[in-house]
């Protein structure tokens, strides 16, 4: 059952909400998966590391002013936590999507695209910010296609962005501005309902 006070944004298929203490088991399932964590520039986490991050997320949610939104992506039809997305607010009216981790069982269901849409609504409508950006590893083509499809623009490459397993990896940078996002709002309902 949802606690309405911790729900930040509601979409067609998913909602974004604060992480709850009861989320630890699904978080361990998601954050201990090496393939999932590779796309968020991390090694797979141990159950203790997952518990520590959950505690950190709870502390961050209570901070004022709030700088980090570490949220659960919840499938509405069955109230299942299927992923997480982290947004860090920046000093000059922008926000960075730090990480989006989607459980393998929930991939290819357009849930990540809808979560990006909900984050955009949070950033531009609720927080009144001007810019939203994210970085995707150069070989994470599904994430790149999703943010491009949503209207973000490719802004460049950060060479040797992160070292994973002893290898430096490049990342593609994508950005979306508030006025670009506002012109897209009429298109978004159809985009989220239309298969890729």
TrEMBL record:
Q: Where are the transmembrane segments?
A: none
- Key words, A-Z: Transferase
Q: Does the keyword Transferase apply?
A: yes
InterPro entries reported in the protein's UniProt record: Acyl_CoA_acyltransferase (IPR016181), GNAT_dom (IPR000182), Ribosomal_N-acetyltransferase (IPR051908)
Query: What's the domain of life for this entry?
Result: Bacteria
A molecular function annotated in GO for this UniProt entry is: protein-N-terminal-alanine acetyltransferase activity
- Residues forming the N-acetyltransferase domain are 14-170
Query: Looking at the UniProt record for this protein, which Gene Ontology cellular component terms does it annotate, in alphabetical order?
Result: cytoplasm
Q: Name one Pfam family in it.
A: Acetyltransf_3
Protein name listed in UniProt: Acetyltransferase (GNAT) domain-containing protein
- Source organism per UniProt: Marinactinospora thermotolerans DSM 45154
Q: What is the lineage of its organism?
A: Bacteria, Bacillati, Actinomycetota, Actinomycetes, Streptosporangiales
